[in-house]
């Protein structure tokens, strides 16, 4: 494993060398045609990027040269000067120096002292002529320039799409591998079994390597937030100090991509609703500057992204009343919800807490987008809040979206997979542990009444009509045990009655292809070792279906 | 009777142009012969194990694993309402894997499909009068009359049938037929959330 430093250095090198090549090209274009604004703009941009990267890596001289070059090109762009005279020669020289500095970084050497060049660049910026007028090149140097090797970067850029394809192929391989393992065990051939075991190890390594390639630091996304927070704070006239943590936490690039909008919503929301303005804060005895903290951390196989503010906290009663007013929930149902249940209402579609519509939030869309994005990844969303003290949102995300732990259940001799992320408890209930309330079967799980529904009914009863009212008379009279899988979604538990439990296993979920991809009850399909197809149940969709069809 | 140079399908003026032919995969639906251009067919196979998929129209038989591709299996007889009443779905059937732009679909047929090469000129555009509840004619490329009274083959245009919205559409709900206008008030309404 490479150290993080080394990895960053390689990334820097790859980009910097690319910038250097582009600079040389554009500089030649500009020399041919000093009016070429496109080349000029590119040079300005390249210098700016190189400056930022070099400074971030602590290469002060390189950053300085790039900074002064950026200023020079800015002056040319602003038509304060033209690309002529001594400037031409000096900029070519400066770009060569940058190239040498970049190569020195790659070789792990100190780069040569650049103060002569920096002084000359300063003189040019001030409108003076450079001293020594950039000394004539010695023959030796000219030879070195002409004989310089062309170098190719040690890194390759790979479009994410190609990585996706690679991961899909590995997924298929893993499925076939499981099948071969099963067959080998059935056939009982020792040689075949040994080979199958070997295949197992290799494909496991391959899978982890491919997944590893797709991991990026959470900082890739988090580092975009200082600007976002600044803008929102400025628009809302608030003082906010943002702290970032855990930029090094590794997460699948696509997972990060899928939560970008969600995170943006939460952060904007935190600044615009969570944090108070300075006067309110001071009046409440808090420091005038609000604190916002975005951090990433690893918890077992998951990555948590937490957004914490020290603002006013969630006013649970206000949310409850608003939800009733907006028709998100009935007054009766709202009265039964505990604090956390009420907070989750914030993520229902069409619910927006802002009383006034601002640029930043309060358009009635927002937090429900967060919930959808996280559901689509099989993740979870947690909220904790204390009135007057602040709020913390926690996104629980899978490190990688390829492999999921799942519980396999059987219904009518068919296996269905339920992602472990949404399973809560497994119960075997006697008939006398089940009671009927209002047409619903219920049981007690840890001091809580949990509704029970036969999975068969949810899946196979067609139409949009409510399910038939259930009574205890529906239960078989004998003392068979009822197998119940309690799933949870949005702090809501639901007991699914199944025929039996099969086992727990890691599955590779393949998305359903068209035209079946519109059926949201299934998150996808997986192939079992037996070669059988197994549908993967989508617990959020199943819960929603139950809520619309409950008698 | 098929004088190719004068046939309506032939647009070429060159008199000696070789007769353009088309290769079809021909299969039976109900009591009729249907054909698909061979380039639209990826493979023909014995129907693999089909897993029933809840919440799909009845003519979607389920999903099957075809060499790692998970594809939907469609019963076209049922889709076009061509199965004579009382005839059961066969236990053993064949599947044509046909390719749409970005997915593959399996068409289940009861008998072994056979390849057939015919001159393009034999395919005549579908007549207007073919009107049935399955709106099958929407997906027709034309009808091929085989010489020597060997019958007709209805040539399907897969590209039209294979848009996801078309394939999922229930035959009865294609367009609200005028005769059934009185049923309109009972049209499915979106479920109300409690």
Short description:
The complex is a heterodimer of chains A (551) and B (194). Chain A contains 18 helices and 18 strands.
Q: Which terms summarize this structure?
A:
heterodimer; A: 551 residues; alpha+beta; Four Helix Bundle (Hemerythrin (Met), subunit A); Heat Shock Protein 90; 4 domains; 6-stranded mixed β-sheet; 5-stranded mixed β-sheet; 18 strands; 46% helix; flat; B: 194 residues; mainly beta; OB fold (Dihydrolipoamide Acetyltransferase, E2P); 3 helices; 11 strands; 7% helix; globular; disordered N terminus; disordered C terminus
Question: Mind explaining what this structure looks like?
Answer:
The complex is a heterodimer of chains A (551) and B (194). Chain A is built from 18 helices and 18 strands. With 551 residues, chain A is an alpha+beta fold. In chain A, strand 14 and strand 15 form a beta hairpin. Chain A starts with a helix and ends with a helix. Chain B has a single domain (19-174), classed as OB fold (Dihydrolipoamide Acetyltransferase, E2P) (Beta Barrel), CATH 2.40.50.180. Chain B is built from three helices and eleven strands, in the order βββββαββββββαα. In chain B, the strands form two sheets. Chain B has a six-stranded mixed beta sheet with strand order 8-1-2-11-10-9. Chains A and B meet through helix 7, strand 17 and helix 18 of A and strand 4, strand 5 and helix 3 of B.
């Amino acid at each position: 494993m490479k150290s993080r430093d080394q990895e960053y250095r390689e990334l820097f090198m790859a980009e910097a060398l690319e910038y250097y090549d582009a600079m040389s090209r554009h500089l030649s274009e500009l020399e041919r045609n000093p009016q070429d604004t496109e080349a000029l703009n590119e040079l300005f941009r390249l210098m700016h990027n190189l400056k930022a990267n070099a400074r971030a890596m602590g290469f002060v001289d390189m950053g300085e040269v790039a900074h002064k070059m950026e200023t020079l090109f800015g002056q040319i762009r602003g038509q304060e000067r033209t690309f002529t005279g001594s400037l031409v020669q000096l900029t070519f020289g400066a770009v060569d120096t940058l190239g040498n500095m970049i190569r020195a970084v790659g070789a792990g050497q100190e780069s040569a002292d650049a103060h002569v060049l920096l002084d000359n660049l300063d003189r040019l910026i001030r409108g003076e002529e450079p001293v020594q007028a950039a000394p004539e090149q010695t023959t030796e140097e000219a030879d070195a320039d002409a004989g310089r090797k062309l170098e190719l970067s040690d890194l390759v850029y790979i479009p994410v799409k190609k990585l996706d394809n690679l991961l899909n192929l590995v997924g298929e391989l893993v499925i076939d591998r499981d099948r071969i393992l099963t067959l080998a065990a059935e056939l009982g051939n020792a040689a075949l079994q040994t080979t199958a075991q070997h295949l197992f190890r290799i494909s496991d390594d391959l899978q982890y390597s491919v997944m590893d390639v797709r991991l990026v630091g959470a900082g890739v996304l988090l580092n975009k937030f200082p600007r976002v927070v600044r803008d929102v704070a400025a628009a809302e006239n608030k003082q906010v100090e943002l702290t970032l943590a855990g930029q090094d936490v590794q997460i699948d690039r696509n997972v990060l991509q899928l939560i970008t909008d969600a995170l943006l919503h939460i952060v904007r929301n935190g600044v615009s609703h969570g944090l108070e303005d300075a006067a309110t804060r001071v009046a409440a005895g808090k420091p005038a500057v609000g604190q916002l903290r975005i951090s990433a951390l690893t918890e077992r196989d998951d990555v948590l992204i937490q957004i914490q503010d020290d603002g006013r906290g969630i006013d649970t009663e206000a949310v409850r009343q608003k939800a009733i007013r907006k028709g998100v929930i009935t007054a009766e149902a709202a009265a039964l919800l505990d604090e956390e249940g009420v907070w989750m209402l914030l993520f229902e579609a069409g619910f927006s807490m802002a009383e006034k519509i601002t640029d930043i939030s309060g358009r009635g869309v927002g937090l429900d987008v967060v919930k959808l994005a996280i559901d689509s990844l099989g993740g979870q969303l947690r909220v904790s809040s204390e009135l007057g003290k602040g709020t913390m949102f926690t996104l629980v995300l899978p490190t990688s979206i390829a492999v999921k732990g799942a519980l396999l259940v059987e219904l009518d001799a068919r296996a269905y997979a339920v992602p472990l992320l949404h399973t809560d408890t497994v119960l075997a209930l006697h008939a006398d542990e089940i009671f009927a309330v209002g047409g619903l079967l219920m049981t007690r799980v840890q001091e809580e009444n949990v509704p029970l529904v036969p999975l068969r009914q949810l899946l196979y009863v067609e139409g949009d009509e409510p399910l038939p009212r259930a009574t205890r008379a529906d239960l078989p009279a004998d003392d068979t045990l009822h197998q119940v899988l309690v799933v949870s979604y949005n702090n809501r538990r639901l007991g699914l009655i199944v025929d039996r439990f099969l086992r727990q296993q890691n599955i590779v979920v393949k998305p359903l292809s068209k035209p079946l991809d519109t059926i949201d009850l299934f998150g996808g399909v997986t192939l079992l070792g037996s070669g059988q197809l197994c549908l993967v149940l989508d617990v959020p969709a199943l819960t929603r279906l139950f809520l619309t069809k409950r008698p | 009777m098929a004088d190719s140079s004068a046939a309506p399908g032939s647009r070429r003026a060159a008199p000696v142009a070789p007769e353009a032919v088309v290769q079809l995969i021909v299969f039976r639906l109900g009591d009729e012969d249907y054909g698909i251009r061979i380039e639209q067919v990826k493979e023909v196979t014995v129907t693999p194990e089909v897993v029933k998929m809840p919440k799909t129209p009845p003519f979607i038989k389920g999903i099957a694993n075809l060499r790692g591709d998970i594809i939907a299996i469609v019963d076209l007889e049922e889709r076009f309402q061509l199965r004579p009443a009382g005839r059961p779905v066969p236990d053993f059937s064949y599947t044509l894997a046909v390719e749409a732009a970005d997915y593959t679909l399996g068409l289940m047929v009861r008998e072994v499909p056979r390849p057939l090469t015919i001159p393009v000129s034999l395919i005549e555009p579908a007549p207007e009068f073919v009107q049935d509840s399955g709106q099958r004619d929407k997906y027709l490329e034309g009808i091929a009359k085989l010489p020597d009274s060997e019958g007709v083959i209805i040539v399907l245009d897969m590209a039209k049938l294979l848009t996801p919205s078309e394939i999922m559409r229930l035959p009865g709900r294609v367009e609200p037929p005028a005769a059934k206008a009185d049923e309109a008030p009972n049209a499915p309404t979106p479920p109300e959330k409690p």
